Every structure is written in structure tokens, then in C-alpha cells.
Amino acid sequence: VYNREEKVLRAIRSIQQQSFADWELILIDDASTDSTKQVIEAEIVKDPRLKLVDNINGKGPSGGRNTGLDNSTGKYIAYQDSDDEWAPHHLQTMVTYLEKYPNEIDLMSANPLRKNEGDGSVFNYDELDLEAVPSIKMDDGYLIKN
């Protein structure tokens, strides 16, 4: 999270509203110069599943993800940028697939949906193009084979 005082609560709320409730959210503040850290700290008091880690010297997006990975304790890792939202069943869907196919999935992705901030209308749905990628249809998804 870097200078997202206006957006970070929306990202946090999209995780708090997940149908799958057994998660921890590690927020990495990447040396924000606004009130981002204070917004996060106010939420931590209300929800023990939230944790704040400070990157005092900004490390950028990759450094933030690595810091989060170093501080995680869960079985699975999911990354979310500070200006993103997840649909309410995102984690449940991902965990269902991971549990159903434990020896076949190493990495998962989902098709991103882009919405206008003002009215929430969808302006772009980026469906992954798997035409040239060797894959197998599995339930409502695809397993990419190497």
C-alpha cells in the first residue's frame, strides 16, 4: 500500500466481506506519506485478522509482495493490490479449486473486471486468452499444462 488513504478501505472491505472467512490480511505500507497508515491502524483495532507491516524504505510493488510473503502464516497466498476489490466469493472459489485439485495447481489467476469508480459500471472485462496455451477445461476454469 502506498499513499492510498482514499482507497485502502475499499480493498480491505472487499476482503472482510468474503464468504470464506479464514484469512489473514497483511497490509504492507510502503513508506506512504499520506494518512494511509493511520487508516489501516484504525481498522486493525476492529479486526484481528488484519496486520500492518512497515516498509520504512519504500520497496515498490514486488518488494511489498515479498515482505507480505515473509510475514504470512497461511496455507495459501493471494495477492491483492491496494486499489483492487474482490467479488464476495473470490477466496472461496480459489480455495475450493486448490482443495479439489491439490496436486495439479501451483498458481491461480482470475479474469479481471474493470469498473468506473463513479457509478460502478463495467467498462472492461479482460478474459484471459488461452487459445495458444495448452490447457484442460476443469469445472468452470482451465488448467494450463506445461
Structural class, from secondary structure content? alpha+beta
Contiguous runs where pLDDT drops below 50 for at least 5 residues: none
* Amino- and carboxy-terminal Cα gap: 34 Å
- Mean of residue pLDDT? 89
Tally of strands: 6
Radius of gyration computed on alpha carbons: 17 Å
Strands ordered across the widest β-sheet: 1-2
Specify the overall morphology: globular
- Largest sheet, strands/sense/barrel: 2 strands, parallel
Helix content class: 25-40%
What string, H for helix and E for strand, traces the elements in order? HEHEHHEEEE
Strand content: 15-25%
For this structure, the quaternary state is: single chain
Number of helices: 4
How does the SSE layout of this entry go?
Elements: H1 8-16, E1 25-29, H2 36-44, E2 50-54, H3 60-71, H4 90-100, E3 113-115, E4 122-125, E5 135-138, E6 141-144
Parallel strand pairs: 1-2
Antiparallel strand pairs: 3-4, 5-6
Report a brief summary of the structure.
With 146 residues, the chain is α+β, with helices and mostly antiparallel strands.
If you had to describe this structure to a student in words, what would you say it looks like?
With 146 residues, the chain is α+β, with helices and mostly antiparallel strands. Helices cover 28% and strands 17% of the residues. The protein contains four helices and six strands. The chain has a two-stranded parallel ribbon. Strand 3 and strand 4 form a beta hairpin. The chain is globular and about 45 Å long. The N and C termini lie far apart (34 Å).
